[in-house]
Amino acid sequence: MSGTKIQLRLQTVSFFSGMSTMILELAGSRLVAPYFGTSLIVWTALIGIIMTSLCIGNWLGGAVADKRPEGKLLGRILMFSAVIIAATAYSSNWILSEIQELHLNLYVSSVYASVSIFSPSSLLLGMVSPFVARLAMQDVKTSGSIVGKLSALNSAGSIVGTFLGGFVLISLFPSAVILMIVACVLALLSVLVYTGAWRKIIAVIILGLITFEAVYSEVNGLPFSPVWKQIDTQYNHISLAESIDRRNGRRVRVMITDPDAAQSLMYMDNHSELVSEYTKFYDLAFRYKPDIKRVLMLGGGGYSVPKHILSEYPGVSIDVVEIDPKVTETAREYFYLEDSPNLTIYHEDARTFLNRSEYDKMEQYDAIFMDTFNSATVIPFQLATIEAGKHLRSLLKPDGVLISNIIASVYGPKSGVFHGIYKAFSQSFGTMMIFPANAPDPRYAYALQNIMLVAGDFVPSAPVSGDKYSELLSHQWLEPFVPDSVVPAFSDGYAPVERYALMQ
């Protein structure tokens, strides 16, 4: 084989190994999401472990390549990585389930999961680059240009893998199937670099088996699936399940985008009836401003609250801002969301919407509902700051009502997120009322729960006999509330929500 062909093949390996690494990282985040979420903690562990494994692989690959600069050894490394990634696709749910059962701290769980699932394949992929560089080296006088070209191709592959994985593959295939596709690519690369005929035959057979499994997995699914339906999107890993409400025996459909909590629930026998107790507190807006005509809701999910508003309050229009179009599509297909002239949906980041709306001088709303927490640990900090509060105030009519769901405790080590948001929003709103949705009794002030923050510049009227909102009003926190002086008012420049969310 001519030197030119060898160089071309090595350049191809460099490009596609870089691409495979990035696709592995992106798809890997979706494997972990149903078990440990997609918080900054999980992403940090995932990226850190993969980078560490690549670093070790680089060092080890260079050392091995100097001792045995053989194409067949590079072929074995590529084939082993293909087989391990294919095995990961099949075993990841079982492994992650076992780790989840240990009930470890999120930091430890995330690192443990990342090491168990991604270290072996990342280490092998890390060995490829120095090995390719060593095999491509022909003359020390041209070593710089060769290494530079190979490094550029590897980086270019990483760029292509980032966009291909994030924009295309995740929207088309389940995460585990994407790993099978990556395994096919790596097995094909091993065929490319093998020189012996019998080695090529073995590599082709393994490639065929992995390809068959990839097609089979796409058609029939993979084992150990934790729920009956899983959907990958550009922003979320959506799990759908059904269960029985123990309070009344009714069947409930559940949307999960973070394992720590159910994001949306729907009764199968009444699609517009609210299931989650905290969602019922959004009705308080109509108690404090009975003439509501326009509502803005940040966070769509299964569209439980919008469906309820459209059903129970005829004539009220509601604008919903949901960052993920696939979530809306899922709500249409599985949560019976229907088109309505009173429903307008914006698919964009809620903070971007707030910034743009203020700039465009949009018509103000009578009420704004916020339900953007995925769980107690997945918090969009950009919606919890002083600056966000100012944008919300400008979009709200002078007598309008803001109601925000916050997962925290009123006091204690789990209260930091709530105190930071309370301080931030109090700089824009004169009236701040606290409604612990689950346990309003002061004895449960340290309990992690849904806290509904009702804010505005109105003067709340006192409850009267026969008030239809009396049950909701009974949850109001009437004890003196003093925000923790240690917790800062969250701002765009400093909002350590992860640190406070993970305090125990």
Structure keywords:
11 strands, elongated, alpha/beta, 2 domains, single chain, Rossmann fold, seven-stranded mixed β-sheet, Growth Hormone, Chain: A, four-stranded antiparallel β-sheet, 15 helices, 504 residues
- Report the CATH superfamily of the largest domain: Vaccinia Virus protein VP39
What fraction strand?
Answer: 5-15%
Indicate the low-confidence ranges by residue numbers.
none
Q: What is the domain total for the residues?
A: 2
According to DSSP, the number of beta strands is 11
In spatial order, strands of the major sheet run 7-6-5-8-9-11-10
Which geometry do the CA atoms define? Answer: elongated
**Helix content estimate:** 40-55%
Description:
The protein folds into two domains: 3-220, Growth Hormone, Chain: A; 272-501, Vaccinia Virus protein VP39 (Rossmann fold, 3-Layer(aba) Sandwich), CATH 3.40.50. 52% of the residues lie in helices and 14% in strands. The protein has 15 helices and eleven strands. The protein has a seven-stranded mixed beta sheet with strand order 7-6-5-8-9-11-10, with helices on both faces. Strands 1-2-3-4 form a four-stranded antiparallel beta sheet, with helices on both faces. The radius of gyration is 27 Å and the shape is elongated. The termini are far apart. The model has no long low-confidence stretch (mean pLDDT 87).
